[in-house]
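[step 3/7] fold_predict: job queued, chain A
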Amino acid sequence: MKRLFIVNLLSERVARKGSVLEPLGKTVGVTCFRLDPFDALPSAVTQAAKDGIQHVIIEGGDGTVQGVISAFLYQADKFDTFPAFTIIPGGMTNQVAKNIGLKSAKMASVERALSSDLSPVELPLLDITDSDGPSYAGFLFSTGAIPQITRYTTGRLHTKGIGGSIAVLGGIIKGIRGNDDALMQTTPVEIAGLHSGPHLGSVVTTLPSLILGLDPFWGSEDAPLRVTWVEGKYRGLGRNILSLWAGSKSKDRSENGFHSRRVNDLDYQYEGDIVLDGEFLSIPSGKFTIRPTRVVTFLR
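[step 4/7] structure written:
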């Protein structure tokens, strides 16, 4: 199997502890491409297609994984066979790696994984298309309170050296307590066929679960996109989140303003903050559609 290593040396764990893939690539004779600068990635993908690369191993955080796989998806028609991917956690939160990647970034764990049969996980990403601009591909999309909490965790907790799952938990707790004017503000949104008016937030993903065991989706329809949204007039935020955290997925929460579905696509009209895999997106038109990408294989 022809492989390509891709590493982001600026990702939090890689910058702090060093790359696993760079020395491993020299040992096993696999090219290791540095995302430095990131602008060189499209040409690296073009070369990967020419070289017939079948397996891409990415070392970096959620933003790195999103950027790399997006670049491959944009050039998918250049590959005779679209490659599979393996993710090595190299960032601060590593939500994607914890779901569909390797659990450890230790050299022995990576060597063992690449020398044995890996289990495939197949799923699409989210394809977010701006009505007047570019498209984005990623795993976890959010509006409303989640971007507000993201600003809090990156601006206050990460700067204090608090990262990963602990920072996410800190942001959630801060939001539930509701004692910060910058968090938990309701904003207007229109999600065609689902909701129109003020909302606390919405979350969309194709991932099978989220971080810390919190998986706030309970729609049962046969469709690839999982979406949950909370109305502006909601009740029992902490109680409902804790109930979902405990795995209670069968309860009807609509009277409290909580809704969840599985859908094939979503049409949004929203002018507030948007976050995709921890990164803020700019969609000036405020109008965009979310669809699934082609199915991608992840080996772990």
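[step 5/7] annotate
The two ends are 15 Å apart (CA to CA).
Confidence is low (pLDDT under 50) at residues 157-171.
exit 0
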